[in-house]
Amino acid sequence: MSSAPIHRRLPLTWLGLLPFIIFVTLFLILPTIHIVIGAFQDRSGAFTLQNLRDLNTGTIPSSYWISIKISVASAALGCLIGFGMAAAVTFGAVPRWIKAPLMTFSGVASNFAGVPLAFAFLATFGPVGLITVFLRNNFGIVLQRDLGFSILSFWGLTVTYLFFQIPLMILIITPALEGLRKEWREAAEVLGATSAQYWHMVALPILFPSLLGTFALLFANAFGAVATAIALTGSALNIVPIQLFAQIRGDVLGNPNLGYAMAFGMIVITAIANVLYIWLRIRAERWLK
Questions:
Q1: Which pTM value belongs to this model?
Q2: CA–CA distance from 222 to each of 8, 87, 88, 144, 170 (Å)?
Q3: CA distances (Å), 18 to each of 9, 30, 145, in order?
Q4: Cβ(103)–Cβ(174) below 8 Å
Q5: Packing angle between helix 60-90 and helix 154-178, nearest 10 degrees?
Q6: CATH superfamily of 59-285
Q7: What is the DSSP letter of 54?
Q8: How confident is residue 59, by pLDDT bands cut at 50, 70 and 90?
């Protein structure tokens, strides 16, 4: 007597993931595959390594270096300022009722980028921006002349990135701070440790994987920011996203395959940063469970 074949059906709960899977496939996986393939092709579609060799020519190396410096600067400042704000809210240095609005704002601001963010900072710190005009008319201070600050410069783009870097740091580090057990501080105090010694010898070593992992994530977040940089600085700052845009926008002098190679280089750098973040995050969670 033969038994009827058993048909395994995919649980209906997986249908909820279908839109996400389709979205990721169409707008992340397939474009990434297309970029990687294009980085190893010439204009006729033949395999070549010349595109990768050309990454070491012209102003491309310096554009990578400037992008890395901006990413490191914005990630470091974002970690420092965001950690201070998260610690103040978590440990009661500021009123507790501020925490909910701060977390809500951080959730919105961490995703606020692109043209709207560039316009907001141009309207505030641009040549005729609100703060620029206010300081010039009321105090005779010209930002670029007296303070050496321009929104179209290295530090201008770095400050702009801080608008979404600091909130992202707050969102990520707050759960880690809340995971510090009160018993650890109490035990340190019983043994005669000061507050500074507790942070130096107990809290910061435990938080170090989370801090380093978050720094890696913020670095990747800034390094991959394209729309904000292009909308804010245009061609005034030689960074990778602007160089990449010049290669793939379709001009006669452009080289789309070189643009793919530049994008491939960005993918590699951000992938390394994200893998480092995931690995450090896993290590940090062992302590905070």
A1: 0.86
A2: 45, 23, 25, 24, 16
A3: 15, 16, 55
A4: yes
A5: 40
A6: MetI-like (1.10.3720.10)
A7: G
A8: confident
